[in-house]
């Protein structure tokens, strides 16, 4: 069927454009306006120019939080993506096991973020938590409220528990869409298990993996609720990620100007990294075709 | 309807008007020369005019941030550098 070009069709995107304008563009514009001013409330503002940006960009507190966030996102991507692929490869493709596995995989995704934080906050406690009590009875002096390494391990394991399912479900969707003819051809050629994965399954999963990596990166880079509930950003500032620092600044200290400047820098970093991820992965996909 | 809660200032209004004017100009360009002008430049992948504007704006934002962090509060040189950068992007990317 021949495509019909009609520029009036652009009016069809008007509703979503209005929705995005009210939910994203107008708030973003307001944040930009706040970032160059100072306020003490009562709708009174004082011009500050670029002072807040200079303050944020020269503050070790911001750079420390940014590094923590980048390391966190790198670690969870390095764990969740291979683990998600591994689980998806081993899930049943036929029979009663399929719905059972799918429901089990979907369960962590259905739990609200603050509830996940509370579960792990209690689970890891030394006095009443199963994990904390068990590790200490093994002779490991685990205490996520006092030891930064333990706090990091708890937050990472919690995120892996919560979000690996998303990668699994996306990879599984990619895997079940591969026609049997591919596997039959591989069997005839005597392909090894690794070759089947490398040349059939991985290329077919590439698109869903792109979505998984992008979603997990953006989500982990913006993580707030779970680490805030479990560690509150501590011990010290060891698990204070950018979003936690931002909320402390904006709501705890009511420094709306610096917080707005930090929000814009934060937003630009996410935009840049997401664009790089998206471009690299879509280009490698296009080169393969 | 009052927009005082948005805390508008003249410089930020000029900033947003410029961005919207650039997007509108891109729309007009597209109307007279449809197709987005795709080409493969120095990044070795296909970009359209919209991609090039996005790369220009994002790059300019980081040029300004780098200037603020390393140079100082005056942004005129950062602006000049961004214009040169945007011309480079539209010419070579």
TrEMBL record, chain A:
<feature type="transmembrane region" description="Helical">
    <location>
        <begin position="70"/>
        <end position="89"/>
    </location>
</feature>
<feature type="transmembrane region" description="Helical">
    <location>
        <begin position="160"/>
        <end position="183"/>
    </location>
</feature>
<feature type="transmembrane region" description="Helical">
    <location>
        <begin position="208"/>
        <end position="225"/>
    </location>
</feature>
<dbReference type="InterPro" id="IPR000515">
    <property type="entry name" value="MetI-like"/>
</dbReference>
<dbReference type="InterPro" id="IPR052730">
    <property type="entry name" value="Sugar_ABC_transporter"/>
</dbReference>
<comment type="similarity">
    <text>Belongs to the binding-protein-dependent transport system permease family.</text>
</comment>
<dbReference type="GO" id="GO:0055085">
    <property type="term" value="P:transmembrane transport"/>
</dbReference>
<keyword id="KW-0472">Membrane</keyword>
<keyword id="KW-0812">Transmembrane</keyword>
<feature type="domain" description="ABC transmembrane type-1">
    <location>
        <begin position="66"/>
        <end position="277"/>
    </location>
</feature>
<protein>
    <submittedName>
        <fullName>Glycerol transport system permease protein</fullName>
    </submittedName>
</protein>
<keyword id="KW-1133">Transmembrane helix</keyword>
<dbReference type="InterPro" id="IPR035906">
    <property type="entry name" value="MetI-like_sf"/>
</dbReference>
<feature type="transmembrane region" description="Helical">
    <location>
        <begin position="101"/>
        <end position="123"/>
    </location>
</feature>
<dbReference type="GO" id="GO:0005886">
    <property type="term" value="C:plasma membrane"/>
</dbReference>
<feature type="transmembrane region" description="Helical">
    <location>
        <begin position="259"/>
        <end position="280"/>
    </location>
</feature>
<keyword id="KW-0813">Transport</keyword>
<dbReference type="Pfam" id="PF00528">
    <property type="entry name" value="BPD_transp_1"/>
</dbReference>
UniProtKB/TrEMBL annotation, chain B:
<keyword id="KW-0472">Membrane</keyword>
<dbReference type="InterPro" id="IPR018678">
    <property type="entry name" value="DUF2160_TM"/>
</dbReference>
<keyword id="KW-1133">Transmembrane helix</keyword>
<feature type="transmembrane region" description="Helical">
    <location>
        <begin position="53"/>
        <end position="70"/>
    </location>
</feature>
<feature type="transmembrane region" description="Helical">
    <location>
        <begin position="12"/>
        <end position="32"/>
    </location>
</feature>
<protein>
    <submittedName>
        <fullName>Putative small integral membrane protein</fullName>
    </submittedName>
</protein>
<dbReference type="Pfam" id="PF09928">
    <property type="entry name" value="DUF2160"/>
</dbReference>
<keyword id="KW-0812">Transmembrane</keyword>
<feature type="transmembrane region" description="Helical">
    <location>
        <begin position="76"/>
        <end position="92"/>
    </location>
</feature>
């Amino acid at each position: 069927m021949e495509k019909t070009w009609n520029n009036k069709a652009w009016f069809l995107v008007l509703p979503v454009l209005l929705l995005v304008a009210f939910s994203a563009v107008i708030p973003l514009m307001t944040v930009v306006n706040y970032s160059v001013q100072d306020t003490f409330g009562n709708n009174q503002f004082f011009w500050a120019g670029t002072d807040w940006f200079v303050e944020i960009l020269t503050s070790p507190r911001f750079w420390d939080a940014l590094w923590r966030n980048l390391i966190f996102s790198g670690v969870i991507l390095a764990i969740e993506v291979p683990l998600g692929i591994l689980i998806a490869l081993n899930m049943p493709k036929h029979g009663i096991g399929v719905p059972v596995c799918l429901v089990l995989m979907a369960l962590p995704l259905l739990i609200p973020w603050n509830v996940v934080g509370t579960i792990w906050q209690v689970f890891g406690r030394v006095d009443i938590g199963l994990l904390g009590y068990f590790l200490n009875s093994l002779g490991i002096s685990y205490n996520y409220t006092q030891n930064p390494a333990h706090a990091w391990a708890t937050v990472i394991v919690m995120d892996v528990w919560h979000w690996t399912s998303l990668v699994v479900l996306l990879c599984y969707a990619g895997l079940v869409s591969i026609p049997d003819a591919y596997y039959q051809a591989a069997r005839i050629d005597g392909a090894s298990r690794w070759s089947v994965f490398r040349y059939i399954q991985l290329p077919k999963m590439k698109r869903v993996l792109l979505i998984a990596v992008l979603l997990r990166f953006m989500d982990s880079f913006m993580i707030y609720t779970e680490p805030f509930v479990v560690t509150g950003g501590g011990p010290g500032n060891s698990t204070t990620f950018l979003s936690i620092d931002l909320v402390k600044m904006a709501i705890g200290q009511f420094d709306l100007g610096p917080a707005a400047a930090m929000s814009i820098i934060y937003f630009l970093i996410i935009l840049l990294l997401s664009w790089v991820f998206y471009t690299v992965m879509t280009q490698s996909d296009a080169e393969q075709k | 309807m009052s927009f005082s809660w948005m805390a508008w200032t003249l410089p930020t209004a000029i900033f947003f008007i410029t961005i919207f004017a650039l997007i509108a100009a891109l729309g007009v360009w597209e109307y007279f020369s449809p197709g987005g002008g795709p080409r493969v430049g120095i990044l070795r992948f296909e970009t359209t005019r919209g991609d090039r504007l996005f790369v220009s704006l994002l790059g300019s934002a980081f040029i300004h941030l780098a200037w603020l962090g390393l140079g100082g509060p005056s942004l005129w040189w950062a602006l000049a550098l961004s214009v040169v950068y945007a011309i480079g992007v539209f010419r070579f990317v």
